[in-house]
Amino acid sequence: MTKALTESTVLSNGVKMPWLGLGVFKVTEEGLAEKTVKAAIDAGYRHIDTAAAYGNEEGVGAGVKNSGVPRDELFITTKVWNADQGYETSLAAFEKSLSKLDMDYVDLLLIHWPVKGKYKETWRALEDIYKSGKARAVGVSNFQIHHLQDLAEGSGLVPMVNQVEYHPLLSQVELLAYCRANGIQLTAWSPLMQGHLDIPLLAEIGNKYGKTPAQVVLRWDLQNGVITIPKSVTPSRIAENADIFDFELSREDMEKLSSLNQNRRFGSDPDNFNF
Q1: Among 5, 53, 83, 186, which residue has the least CB neighbours within 10 Å?
Q2: Known binding site: residues?
Q3: Is 272 part of any domain?
Q4: What is an example of a GO molecular function annotated in this UniProt entry (predicted)?
């Protein structure tokens, strides 16, 4: 299993996507996104996940530019926001994202949420962006199985990635199995349960391996074949989150962690959101 921060999985179209990335949701304070992205790249991260809705694409782009690491060695994701969904509006929104990032292309472009009556048209725009080469891969975020099935009707292109809330309290077993069977790579947002890590089992397993509860959860993600993008703005925590490649959870510990599932969401429900 994954042994180094630089390791990647290969998406269905052959593009390599690093197993661990930095999420930058809510990193909007002046100059903070740039500083955070640079700190992560300095710590060895090569995968940064942003979105138009996060309001920090400019900062992410500046952090990438000032990192000293060549653009083609990095994996950058952004997303089309709900208000911009639809064919023409998605194309225009994507150009705006590219301009803010100050990049010629992104490595992955996602539909942020499955907006009813809109996401199929948005997907058509993403297919065209993908064909143009301005996104090396395209996918979705917060899509349930029925959304993915709906998307598959009348579309030749299967999403390469589905980014969803995923952690031991929301293990999404059926969705993970569906994605795996259809060549869709699952990615975990909010893997650290918005800081709700005070679960005795996490500490107990962590003590056994000399790791923190956060590191145990992130390792569980990787061993389930799920890419993970923990968010932090603290350089020491960014480094700590990446220190998960020198141990492996036993099968028994993996099962114990999976048994914590309560289908509990800390974020919105993809079948019931109003934004």
Answers
A1: 83
A2: 112
A3: no
A4: oxidoreductase activity, acting on the CH-OH group of donors, NAD or NADP as acceptor
Give, rounded to a whole angstrom, the gap between the first and last alpha carbons of the chain.
38
Catalytic residue among 45, 54, 130, 166: 54
Using an 8 Å Cβ cutoff, are 183 and 177 in contact? Answer: no
Using 50, 70 and 90 to split pLDDT, how confident is the model at 1?
A: low
Does a structural domain hold residue 27? yes
Task: For residue range 80-89, list pLDDT tens digits in order.
Answer: 999 999 999 9
Q: How confident is the model at residue 156 (pLDDT cuts 50, 70, 90)?
A: confident
Would 22 be classed as within a structural domain? yes
Contact 239, 41 (CB under 8 A): no
**Range(s) of the domain holding residue 144:** 8-194+225-232
Q: Take residue 161 and report the two structure tokens written for it.
A: 């990635």
> Token pair 């980014």 is at which residue?
163
| Dihedral (CA of 61, 67, 21, 34) sign | negative
Q: Does residue 253 lie within any of the structural domains?
A: no
Number of domains in the chain: 1
CA–CA dist 262, 189 (Å, integer): 17
Over 80: is that where the pLDDT of 217 sits?
A: yes
By the 10 Å C-beta count (0-12 exposed, 13-18 middle, 19+ buried), 263 is classed as exposed
54 is catalytic: yes
- Residues 39-67 have pLDDT tens digits of 999 999 999 999 999 999 999 999 999 99
